[in-house]
């Protein structure tokens, strides 16, 4: 039998047995359910009308609130439910209104048409309401000025909600497309992160289990270490990619069906780029997890040994999130050239077109070179570690044992 | 023929093997004996290239063993290893395929071995659901499923009840009769004596005794003389030459005596001394040879 045939047998066993074990089906099912829930539930539960509750103290507030309502609903099509609905509660004193705000009864308090009170400056709730009121207050003042010159209030509203300025960016392509790129990059990043942590752990514990139940000695009496490790990574990697494709298909299908928002237009090149980096990133972590698994005889030990790798994946994820906001920053640039963080960062920066060609090429060279190197090192550590039963084996001890 | 030639192997300061040689022809069964830690498992792992010897060589039919040769060998390690959650039949089929069998060959062989072991109705059970003895049977089947030319079994009898041990012996005999070379290690020396024509005894990493069991017995410098007699047997053996030691058990006296001692006149002397209930003059048992070799 050729070497690849045995590797294929090992991979197929992983796929068959993990399908049968139900753990895979359950994780896949849960992932699909979560994606569906994220897309469909807001459609079912959420109404199109934004409700805002305003506490009003003193005089002169009604005009501002009415204007805010007009501004909010100015672009509504006739027959649609209104975009904005306002619920006003009158309070006798500022203190009373603040108490109501603290109790969560109102989102914002307006006092004497001059002061806005919010629970926190940076909180999510209330701030858009406050923006609306600010704009309305401005409109009311302008109105007061222009009314002297005979303009009608309705004209002011129309003026203020007229067509927004057209936005262009220096990057090539239209803004809708680069928004799409960002979304795709973010999802690709999230999926790689999940795959590394979930399926990387499967590789880790799979190797340790074969060692702890000693089946590896039977396997190694006919198959070579690289065939076992390679087959395991191929098999579990196939499952990871199957789940990835399933998740993407379900997400796209659900978005189409519910028309939650228009799918962003993206080039096939971005998707291909994501897939390539998904594979590179998964393999880089997979070989390391495989080597780590061979050092432990118990699953608990395996998780401890693999901790640095899991933490690196977490770090890579967060570096990429920051790269989404600042794709040209030092952190983003440096982490593009570090083998274990590059798969997270490079596709994000490439999607945002913030990656010069030379940096991309350099990152590819570094990642592929380290993949080759790490595969060799990890294969040797696996071969040395996996037959040393008993207590936990050190990395260096496993490296040396490969000669024995 | 499997030939292991002068293997040496150290792990750090520990000399696990220091001159291990043995050989076994197709159709023969070799008992590989030795105290715990003598190097049996290390030698077996070297045969399967799981370890690399510091010096020495293992050959099969005269050629050094290559990875592809391993597909024609079957190995049952001392520490049993199966996938607990995998079905017995799938597991054996998988091992068959790893040894290069086609899918249908492997499946058919897996089922036939399970039926042979009386596990035909359990073939779809995960291995962890089987009893200890049945797991052992599946483990043996895993070494046999691809119809290997060489069988190497590390302690195949450990943990087996007498009935299961009998089945194991039958299978090893049958495999040898079918032309396979069989090597197994064991501490149950009476079983080995029953089963093997050849033994190799290893002590501190070195094979100290190697050959056919009957020849080894003949070549032994001592014999056992057993006496059970009314009266005092000690007086009787007082003028016997070459006595190396005596042992009394349940009223029976065993005399360890030089093989060269002529005992022809002794029987009639014994008969004259009193009623002779038991008399035996034998070569030492395999256990005796073993104890002698590893002393």
Helices, strands, pairings?
The complex is a heterodimer of chains A (404) and B (295).
Chain A: H1 3-20, H2 23-45, E1 50-57, H3 61-73, E2 84-91, H4 94-102, E3 108-111, E4 115-117, H5 127-147, H6 153-160, H7 175-212, H8 215-220, H9 225-258, H10 268-295, H11 299-305, H12 307-325, H13 330-335, H14 342-351, H15 357-385, H16 395-401
Helix pairs in contact in A: 1-9, 2-9, 3-5, 5-6, 7-9, 7-10, 7-12, 7-14, 9-10, 10-11, 10-14, 10-15, 12-14, 15-16
Chain B: E1 2-11, E2 14-24, E3 29-33, H1 40-47, E4 55-60, E5 63-64, E6 73-76, H2 88-98, H3 103-116, H4 132-144, E7 150-153, H5 162-177, E8 181-185, H6 189-195, E9 198-203, E10 206-212, H7 213-219, E11 222-229, H8 233-237, E12 243-249, E13 252-258, H9 266-273, E14 276-282, H10 286-293
Parallel strand pairs in B: 3-8, 3-9, 6-7, 7-8
Antiparallel strand pairs in B: 1-2, 1-4, 4-5, 9-10, 11-13, 11-14, 12-13
Helix pairs in contact in B: 2-3, 2-4
